[in-house]
Design a protein that fits this description.
Elements lengths: L2 H30 L4 H38 L9 H30 L4 H29 L2
Helix pairs in contact: 1-2, 1-4, 3-4
Length: 148
C-alpha cells in the first residue's frame, strides 16, 4: 500500500469515527426533544476539532508505524513520492466529493423550504460535509485499486 493509500485509509477511518459521534449526538438530541441551539453549536465545534485532530494525529501515527515497519523489514527508509497519477486521483476524488456535497446541500435547503427548522438544515449541512469526505476517500481508494 502506497503512502497516499495509507493516508486515504486514515482519513476514511477518521471520517467514519466522526460520523459515528455525529450520529450518536443527533440521536440523543432527537430523543431529548427539539434541537437546542447551544447544544447543536457546541456539537459542531467538537466535530470540526475532532475532524482536524483525528486526521492529523492518525496520519502522523500511520506514517511513523509504517516507516518503522518498512525500516525493520528492508532496512530502508520509505519514500514519499507523489506523481501525476496521485495528483489526478486526488483531483478526481475532490471533484466527486464536491458534486456529492452540492447535491446534499441542495437537499438540505429543500428541508428548510419544506418547513423544517433552520438548525436541522445546518445539521444536515454538517452531515453532508462528513459524508462528502467519506465519498471522496472511497472514490480515491477505488481509483487506486482499479489501477487508474
Amino acid at each position: 500500500m502506497s503512502y497516499k493509500e495509507k493516508s486515504i485509509v486514515v482519513s476514511l477511518a477518521s471520517h467514519i469515527l466522526v460520523l459515528g459521534y455525529f450520529s450518536i449526538k443527533i440521536y440523543q438530541f432527537y430523543q431529548a426533544g427539539p434541537l437546542v441551539p447551544g447544544l447543536v453549536f457546541r456539537m459542531w465545534g467538537v466535530i470540526i476539532v475532532l475532524m482536524i485532530l483525528i486526521n492529523i494525529l492518525g496520519n502522523i501515527l500511520a506514517n511513523i508505524v509504517s516507516s518503522a515497519i518498512q525500516m525493520v523489514k528492508t532496512n530502508e527508509v520509505e519514500g514519499f513520492v507523489e506523481d501525476e497519477r496521485d495528483k489526478t486521483i486526488e483531483l478526481k476524488g475532490t471533484r466527486n466529493a464536491y458534486v456529492f456535497n452540492s447535491i446534499c446541500v441542495g437537499l438540505s435547503m429543500l428541508a428548510f423550504v419544506l418547513g423544517q427548522p433552520p438548525l436541522l438544515m445546518f445539521s444536515l449541512l454538517i452531515l453532508s460535509g462528513i459524508l462528502a469526505g467519506i465519498f471522496e476517500d472511497i472514490s480515491q481508494l477505488a481509483m487506486y485499486r482499479r489501477g487508474f
